[in-house]
Amino acid sequence: MPQRPTREQLAAAHGRTIDDVIAPGLRVLFCGINPGLYSGATGYHFARPGNRFWPALHRSGFTPRLLAPSEQAELLGFRLGITNLVARTTARADELTAEELRAGGIDLTRKVARYRPGWLAVVGITAYRAAFGRPKAVVGPQEEQVSGVPVWLLPNPSGLNAHWTPAKLAEEFARLRAAAR
């Protein structure tokens, strides 16, 4: 198990980027808002302890076992990938500007056009609303597509998003999994 980053390592991670886990022909490309400092320090997506992305992925049936963030490359074998709306790491998503989110939406549109996943799953409704100018978007499949690819909005899996329990989060991920078959 990787060692937890120190306070100094977390501070030094501010503004870093981490590589996408991406390839052509994915069933689902998951798109986070942006990496947190913990992810920036470790180099792994959704790495902060308490983030429920990896448990939701497993409980929903996307993966046969619970993967650790350090095993993120194994997602490609399941035809799953991860990217972010904004590449730079921050302590909190509210440090991002509306302009950064809109620019991230443009970049994501290009990325989706290039890689052509079966579904784009945006993990974080508020960021999607800002990036794509859809103020009334709600969790679930969207009428709008990105580069001709269907979009599913998922709740933010951060432990701070407490009104989405682990079970409800896994249920929503499972709905997407069923659609992505």
Automatic annotation (TrEMBL):
- EC number(s) of the enzyme? 3.2.2.28
Keyword vocabulary terms for this entry: DNA damage, DNA repair, Glycosidase, Hydrolase
Per UniProt, the enzyme's principal EC class comes to: hydrolase
Q: Which Gene3D superfamilies match?
A: Uracil-DNA glycosylase-like domain
**Top-level division of the source organism's lineage:** Bacteria
Boundaries of every Uracil-DNA glycosylase-like domain copy: 19-180
Coiled-coil ranges (or none): none
A GO term for molecular function: hydrolase activity, acting on glycosyl bonds
Q: Which NCBIfam families match?
A: PRK10201.1 (NF007570)
- The protein depicted here goes by the name G/U mismatch-specific DNA glycosylase
